[in-house]
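ok so for the tutorial part 2 we go from a plain amino acid sequence to predicted structure tokens. step 1 is just haveing the sequence, like this:
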Amino acid sequence: MQLQVLESRAREAVIRLATLVKNGRQWKDLNMDCVAASRAHIEVFILRSFMHMLSTADESLNPILLKLQNLVFPARPPI
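step 2 — the prediction. this is what the tokens look like for a chain of 79 residues:
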């Protein structure tokens, strides 16, 4: 779920930036929007990389990684 939220944020940041460019906003006025889009995509990349590392790690690391995973992605209470 966290990945979906970050991907949505990154997508919206790019759409906002594209809209501003199409509407004629000058590049010098887009610094903060470019930074926001870049940061959003970096966070997606970092989370995907982390999730990949968790899924491909050596089995001897499972107890440590499981603890780390539970800290980063706490289990949701049952509905």
